[in-house]
Amino acid sequence: MFLKEFYEDRDGFAAISAERASRFAKEVAHDFNPLHDVDAKRFCVPGDLLFALALEKYGLSQRMHFVFAGMVGHGVLLDFPDTDAGEIEVKDNQGKAYLQIERSGGLSRNSALIESFTRDYVAFSGQNFPYVLVPLLEKENVMFSLTRPLVIYESMTLSFDHLDFQQASVEMMEPKMEVNGKRASAYLHFRIKAGENVVGTGFKKLAISVQSGYESEPMQAFVEEYLARKNDYLGNLPIL
After folding, report:
1. Residues 110 and 167: beta-carbon distance below 8 Å
2. How confident is the model at residue 239 (pLDDT cuts 50, 70, 90)?
3. Could you give the dihedral angle defined by the CA atoms of residues 15, 16, 18 and 19, in that order, rounded to the nearest 10 degrees?
4. Do the strands 87-92 and 13-15 form a parallel or antiparallel pair, or are they unpaired?
5. What angle do CA 183, 174, 59 make, to 5 degrees?
6. From residue 54, how far is each of 83, 147, 184, 239 by CA, in Å?
7. How far apart are CA 71 and CA 44, in angstroms?
């Protein structure tokens, strides 16, 4: 599958370099979260890449729940166990857990379906900032730190009516945010479609470190800088 260029197999472990993870974030998901920059002090592999690797390894189940239990750093050796179990833990070679997966119901290993859904989901996911999160922050009158933003992919849930289709796309539904002191949880709901037919639903949960008082002008400047950086990077990619 298309993921082969984004990780390396080392004696049965998946190793993801900062450079490969950053390329996936920027070029596949169009996600320019500073945490995914190669030189970031708190660099972490994007959760969307871990999700994509899990689907490549285990297929697409009718009901799936993913919990991102830890931030994966550069070159961490991940073990995606060879199992048909309904509950799976992805750990490193030291036994630390990073991803928990629960799955049930029907199973599809249709590679074309899995790739189409993965690509569309991560593209949807990468657009969450600024187009979804900023309006939610403004509505709740909170900000994240503009100097050290901390937005963490916490979990994701999928539910399909059936898996009898060849391609799938993702469409945003009404997002929600809950604020509890300095922590906010954003719930990004979506429907899954095969052509014009809705075949499932899901939601992505983000954990965000926030402070009270939304400030429009600083946030707008932050967004403009983010989009300029994104457009500059994508504009300099070679045309294939």
Report:
1. no
2. low
3. 110
4. unpaired
5. 85
6. 12, 32, 27, 29
7. 6
5-21, pLDDT tens digit by residue?
A: 999 999 999 999 999 99
> Using one digit for the tens of pLDDT, what is the confidence trace for 41-73?
889 999 999 999 999 999 999 999 999 998 999
10 Å CB burial of residue 223 (0-12, 13-18, 19+) is middle
Q: What is the dihedral of CA 60, 199, 117, 155, to 10 degrees?
A: -70
Instruction: Name the more confident of 113 and 238.
Output: 113
**Are 177 and 187 within 8 A, CB to CB?**
yes
pTM of the model: 0.92
**pLDDT tops 80 at residue 237:** yes
**What is the per-residue pLDDT for 240?**
53
Under DSSP, the state recorded for 33 is -
Count of residues making up the chain: 240
Residue 48 belongs to what H/E stretch?
helix 47-58
Structure token pair of residue 80? 């995606």
